[in-house]
Amino acid sequence: MKRSASRNPFLQTSLPKTIAIHTTDLAPPMVAIYNMLAGQKAWPSQAKVMNCRKLDFAHSTFTHSFFSFGLPIMADPVAAAKEMYRTLKPGGTAITAFWLRIPQGESAGETRRRIWGPDAPPAIEPHPRHKDAAFNHELLVQGGFKSADAQLYEKSAVLPVDDLDEFACAIWSAIGELAGGWTQDDEVRWEEAIAIYKEVLSQKKGFHVDRDGNVSFEAVAQIAIVKKEAFWMRSSRELEWLSRSRKYTSTHTAYRVLTPLPL
């Protein structure tokens, strides 16, 4: 299963007919866009509106579950991790990731607090521990996965920016919103917010300006790959419970992709 109603290069490859990909997203517009693209490109996939903390899928449905950049920005990430675990088949693989460092995302929250004070958090903001390399791993373990079954990797990505003013406005528009929604004061102080956002951003680790004046941002992500313990490793009580699952004996390969939130 894929938790992300977004375009995916994986889906643009030639896939066996036995593969089914289930995509979920909490936002109906994203689901509609995804399903339109899936229909145009004949992807073996359909998106549904669903809360990743309470999925409609049966136990042990999927061979793979993908959750991009989501756990540390949720109010209850452990509930989502438990759903990943529950819906995976024994021996199945879950893949999730989050940013250990992302200057453009971190700057939004700091900008809002600098202007409106400490009690004015943005609507989308990661957990304070998102920079802790152990945090994502801990969430997966609390969700039911075995600590020893997780592999952690770090990967950096560089984003070149042609127009910093345009970029700052776009990012602030996307993730600068107050938790309760935009206010009249936001409109009045819009230019001030953009200016402070650029100032905060320029002081972040990962913000680079070369000698020709070209701007780029370097972000660092942690990717976690974890397997659910295999059938033969389970207790007799767990095996009895799993045997009741109607989808456990399915011959189809099912993928699940979960919704990422942009930062």
Question: How would you describe this protein?
Answer:
The chain has 263 residues and is an alpha/beta fold. It has one domain (2-258): Vaccinia Virus protein VP39 (Rossmann fold). The protein contains eight helices and nine strands. It has helices spanning 28-41, 77-87, 103-116, 135-142, 164-175, 184-188, 190-202, 236-243; strands spanning 2-3, 19-25, 45-49, 62-68, 88-101, 150-161, 207-209, 215-227, 253-258. Strands 1, 2, 3, 4, 5, 6, 7, 8 and 9 form a nine-stranded mixed sheet that branches. The longest helix has 14 residues, at 28-41. The two termini are 22 Å apart. The model is unreliable at 245-253 and 259-263 (pLDDT under 50). It holds the Pfam family Methyltransf_11. InterPro entries: Methyltransf_11, SAM-dependent_MTases_sf. It comes from Trematosphaeria pertusa. This is Methyltransferase type 11 domain-containing protein. Residues 20-95 form the Methyltransferase type domain.
**Separate helix tally:** 8
Give the termini distance in whole angstroms.
Answer: 22 Å
Assign the CATH class.
Alpha Beta
CATH architecture: 3-Layer(aba) Sandwich
Number of strands: 9
Computed over alpha carbons, the radius of gyration is: 20 Å
Q: Structural class of the secondary structure composition?
A: alpha/beta
What's the helical proportion of residues?
A: 25-40%
| Number of separate structural domains | 1
Helix and strand element order: EEHEEHEHHEHHHEEHE
Give the overall silhouette. Answer: globular
